[in-house]
Design a protein that fits this description.
With about 260 residues, the protein is an alpha/beta fold. Helices cover about 35% and strands about 20% of the residues. A six-stranded mixed sheet has the order 6-7-8-3-9-10, with helices on both faces. The protein has a four-stranded antiparallel sheet with strand order 2-1-4-5, covered by helices on one side.
Length: about 260
C-alpha cells in the first residue's frame, strides 16, 4: 500500500473533520457496494470523490446523507456518532445534499423553492395562526441563499423557466437555505455547457469558505480545477486519497482510469 492509500484508511486522517465516514460499508446481499471507505470533510475544503460508473460514489453519498443506512462502519458529525440517523435528522443537524437529477418544484417561483427549503429546516408548528409565507426567518434565508447562488435577480421567475444550469444553481440555493455546514453535491455539473460549468465552479469555490463540501463529479477537468483533496473509488473501495497532484501521479489511479497513462 502506498502513502496516498495509507492515508485513506488512517483513523487519524480526519481528526479535524466536521463530518467523516470511518470504514463505512454497505452490502446488498452478496454485493458490496461500498467497502470500508474512509472520508473526512473539513470546512474550507472541497473533497471530490471520483470513479468510473459503478464505483460506489452515489451509494456513498446516500450513506453520508442518511438516505440509506450503513451495514458497518461509523459516521461522525463533530466527533459524535450519527450512524443510523435518517435523512431528515441529518438535514436538521446541518447536512445538505443535492441530487444527480433536479429536485425542485417546477411550478413554484425560484424564491418559493428556497423558502420552502428554509421552512423545512426551521419548522414552527406552534405558530399555526401565521401564514408560512409571512415567516421572516424563511424569507430571509431564501433571499440570502439566492444571493449567494447568483439567482437573486431571478427570484420571482417560475422555476420551470430557468435554464438547466440555473436549475442546478437553484438546487444548491435550496441546500443553502437550510443553513448547512456540510454540502454533499452529486454531479452538480451534469449536462452543463462550458459557460454554465464555469459559473458552477465559481459558485463552489465561493461556498467552501464556511462549508465542508463533498463533490461527486465525472468531469475530471472540473475536479482537478477546484478540489483540495480527491478520493478515488473502484468497485466500492478506495484506491487513493490525496491532493490533486498526489492523485494525478498515483499509478493505481492511472491504471484504473487511463490504462496507465497520466491524468
Amino acid at each position: 500500500m502506498n502513502a496516498v492509500q495509507a492515508r485513506a484508511g488512517d483513523p487519524d486522517a480526519g481528526h479535524s473533520a466536521v463530518f467523516e465516514a470511518r470504514a463505512i460499508s454497505r452490502r446488498f446481499g452478496a454485493l458490496v457496494a461500498v467497502d470500508q471507505v474512509w472520508v473526512a470533510l473539513q470546512v474550507g475544503e472541497i473533497h471530490a470523490v471520483i470513479g468510473t460508473n459503478g464505483a460506489g460514489k452515489s451509494t456513498l453519498i446516500n450513506l453520508l446523507s442518511g438516505e440509506i443506512a450503513p451495514s458497518s462502519g461509523e459516521l461522525l458529525l463533530d466527533g459524535q456518532s450519527v450512524k443510523g440517523w435518517p435523512q431528515p435528522r441529518l438535514a436538521q443537524a446541518g447536512i445538505g445534499r443535492s441530487y444527480q437529477r433536479n429536485n425542485i418544484f417546477l411550478p413554484l417561483s425560484v424564491r418559493e423553492n428556497c423558502r420552502l427549503a428554509a421552512q423545512a429546516k426551521q419548522q414552527r408548528p406552534w405558530a399555526w395562526w401565521q401564514s408560512a409565507e409571512a415567516c421572516r426567518y424563511s424569507n430571509q434565508q431564501a433571499d440570502n441563499a439566492l444571493e449567494r447562488a447568483g439567482l437573486a435577480a431571478l427570484a420571482d421567475r417560475p422555476a420551470n423557466s430557468l435554464a438547466h444550469g440555473q436549475k442546478r444553481q437553484l438546487e444548491i440555493a435550496m441546500c443553502l437555505a437550510t443553513a448547512p455546514r456540510v454540502l454533499l453535491l452529486d454531479e452538480p455539473l451534469a449536462g452543463m455547457g462550458a459557460e454554465e460549468s464555469a459559473r458552477m465552479l465559481a459558485l463552489l469555490l465561493s461556498l467552501k469558505q464556511g462549508h465542508a463540501i463533498l463533490l461527486v463529479e465525472h468531469d475530471m477537468d472540473a475536479v482537478f480545477a477546484v478540489a483540495d483533496r480527491i478520493t478515488v473509488m473502484v468497485n466500492g473501495a478506495v484506491i487513493a486519497t490525496g491532493t490533486p497532484d498526489e492523485v494525478r501521479a498515483n499509478r493505481d489511479v492511472q491504471n484504473a482510469y487511463l490504462g496507465g497513462h497520466t491524468l
